[in-house]
Amino acid sequence: MSAERFVELIVSLCETVGLGDPQIALDRGAVEVDGFTVRTVHAPEDPDAMYLDFELGPVATARMLRVYQLMLESNLTLYAQDQAQLGLDAETGTVLLSVRVPMTDEVDGAWMADTCSHYTEHGRYWRTNLSNASDDMFNGLCEGRYMWLRTG
Hints:
CATH class: Alpha Beta
Radius of gyration: 16 Å
Order of helices and strands: HHEEEHEEHH
CATH architecture: 2-Layer Sandwich
Oligomer: single chain
Number of domains: 1
Structural class: alpha+beta
Helix content: 40-55%
């Protein structure tokens, strides 16, 4: 049933946001959302969930240590409350924001679209600020001044 539910959710997402032929998204294993490639993964090891892997881009060599520190801090302080985590694609070195999505009855195309929109905001922040940030910006992040944290 879980593979069928995965397909159902991808089709529902495509229909909700008007992506066209859902079979293309299924064959490709990814969708484009606000300029981000979002890989859609259903792993046999976790049959009741799917994963949305947002590709945030590569890390500049000069920034690697600092970015890795920020990724770890974000995983511990921000994403520990979500079912999300920052990591690296071992083959490409691309930063990924991976979100675990339980395939429950409450999850539908609209929910998926909202989730994608929410995490593309995080992705834009990472792309903009980590690619172009000065050392002062990095220091602010390390002190816990996360601009993407908003309430309400």
